[in-house]
Amino acid sequence: MEYYFSKVVNNSYDEVVKITVEALKSEGFGVISEINMHEKLKEKAGVDFKRYKILGACNPPYAYKALQAEDKIGTMMPCNVLVIEQGQNKIEIAAVNPIASMQAIKNPTLGEIALEITGKLKKVINSI
Q1: Which distant-in-sequence residues (6+ apart) come within 8 Å of 45 by Cβ?
Q2: In the 3-class helix/strand/coil scheme, how is the chain assigned residue by residue?
Q3: pLDDT in tens, 62-89
Q4: Helices 108-127 and 60-69: crossing angle, nearest 10°?
Q5: pLDDT at position 124, please?
Q6: Cα separation of 121 and 75, whole Å?
Q7: Is pLDDT above 80 for 1?
Q8: Which residues are CB-neighbours of 95 under 8 A, at least 6 positions away?
Q9: pLDDT band at 58 (very low <50, low <70, confident <90, very high)
Q10: pLDDT digit string, tens, across residues 91-128
Q11: In degrees rounded to 5, what are phi and psi of residue 70?
Q12: CA-to-CA distance for 69 and 54, rounded, in angstroms?
């Protein structure tokens, strides 16, 4: 099982970031963190890297259910969605596969939540 799923689109990087945030909202997610890895790598390691943004997405009702089922699940939150510039106007959007990341946790309630969140994240990726 893959630990992520992704899609490549032909559009500008900034436009894909905007579309991705809107697609997440349409599935009940808010972006609670945003990390520009290319900027951080330049600042902290002095290296140039392609444009690479990590969007920390959270669906509050599902997050609450997950925390009730397993209070240490916060170590795997939020759901990360990546926007990566793979070439000029060739942008990859990738999302964590919650089912794959939660396989190690033997909690049936959490498995059901992961399945639902996986479906929502796949809808986000497919809609872009």
Answers
A1: none
A2: CCCEEEEEEECCHHHHHHHHHHHHHHCCCEEEEEEEHHHHHHHHHCCCCCCEEEEEEECHHHHHHHHHHCCCHHHHCCEEEEEEEEECCEEEEEEECHHHHCCCCCCHHHHHHHHHHHHHHHHHHHHC
A3: 999 999 999 999 999 999 999 999 999 9
A4: 160
A5: 97
A6: 19
A7: no
A8: 4, 5, 6, 57, 79, 80, 81, 82, 121, 122, 124, 125
A9: very high
A10: 999 999 999 988 888 899 999 999 999 999 999 999 99
A11: -155, 100
A12: 26
Amino acid 102: pLDDT: 84
Tokens of 84: 């990566």
Q: pTM score > 0.90 for this model?
A: yes
Q: Structure tokens of 82?
A: 């990546």
Q: Cα dihedral sign for 75, 123, 51, 16?
A: negative
Q: HSE of 57 in the Cβ direction (CA atoms, 13 Å)?
A: 31
Q: State how far Cα 15 lies from the chain centre.
A: 17
